[in-house]
């Protein structure tokens, strides 16, 4: 491995824990292909010297990356960059497109269905609609490097976004980018609820996996910075090719 030592860097002024900074730095080097699948990473001792931290701090960062499948350890040999078959979906990025780009993969979508409908109670309440208001809905299969990982249906107020019905190319682009570009509406917050489920036959067919496969059902409500609801969405994941990844730090947790 021939990686410039200056790329292994952390910010001593940052409030983030040192192990977290090391974890983020190494993950970015993998995303940028500076560290390539199959290559070994420096030893704990070498990384401790590069970052100016203890081996225990380095080991904590490496263990996190091993659990997330970015790295693999071979006893007596070393630690190596893996070629992930799992796509981590992290809440640090609001849009699916940004989430997939952040882990170094190519996002794409396939349109299943779109149109106008009377919303269910949950969608109507989330979007703060009256009983008479309709929604535009958009159902897509979302891909990472051409692997289907989510089947998602988004609901938006038809009165607020009437042009969505005739928008060309919407299935293949970032919905949030389109909303900002066309309506100057920017999504700033996402409330997400996760539920364990098993895929139905129809869902499994779209995700190219087996009926009954364990999955995560995600219900999201997207808001503007002013707190106005923009989108209500429901998605199910391909449990074989995706995972939800969360990280917390002091200040995010009460009690």
Write the layout of secondary structure elements.
Elements: H1 18-31, H2 44-51, H3 55-67, E1 71-74, E2 78-81, E3 87-89, H4 96-102, E4 107-117, H5 121-126, E5 135-144, E6 147-157, H6 175-183, E7 189-198, H7 201-206, E8 214-223, E9 229-237, E10 242-244
Parallel strand pairs: 3-10
Antiparallel strand pairs: 1-2, 4-5, 5-6, 6-9, 7-8, 8-9
Helix pairs in contact: 1-3, 2-3
Explain what the structure shows.
This protein is an alpha+beta fold and 255 residues long. It folds into 2 domains: 5-81, Winged helix-like DNA-binding domain superfamily/Winged helix DNA-binding domain (Arc Repressor Mutant, subunit A); 87-244, Chorismate lyase-like (Chorismate lyase). It is built from 7 helices and 10 strands. The chain has helices at 18-31, 44-51, 55-67, 96-102, 121-126, 175-183, 201-206, and strands at residues 71-74, 78-81, 87-89, 107-117, 135-144, 147-157, 189-198, 214-223, 229-237, 242-244. Strand 5 (135-144) and strand 6 form a beta hairpin.
State the gist of this model:
This protein has 255 residues and is of the alpha+beta class.
Q: How many H/I helices? A: 7
Main sheet: strands, sense, barrel: 6 strands, antiparallel
Strand content: 25-35%
From the 3D structure, determine the CATH topology of the largest domain: Chorismate lyase
N to C succession of SSEs: HHHEEEHEHEEHEHEEE
How many separate domains?
Answer: 2
- The global form is elongated
Strand order across the biggest sheet?
A: 4-5-6-9-8-7
The low-pLDDT segments are 251-255
- Distance between the first and last residues' Cα: 44 Å
What integer is the average pLDDT? 86
* Helix/strand/pairing category: alpha+beta
Which superfamily, in CATH terms, is the homologous superfamily of the largest domain?
Chorismate lyase-like
Percentage of residues in helical conformation: 10-25%
CATH architectural group of the largest domain: 3-Layer(aba) Sandwich
CATH class of the largest domain: Alpha Beta
Radius of gyration: 21 Å
Tally of strands: 10
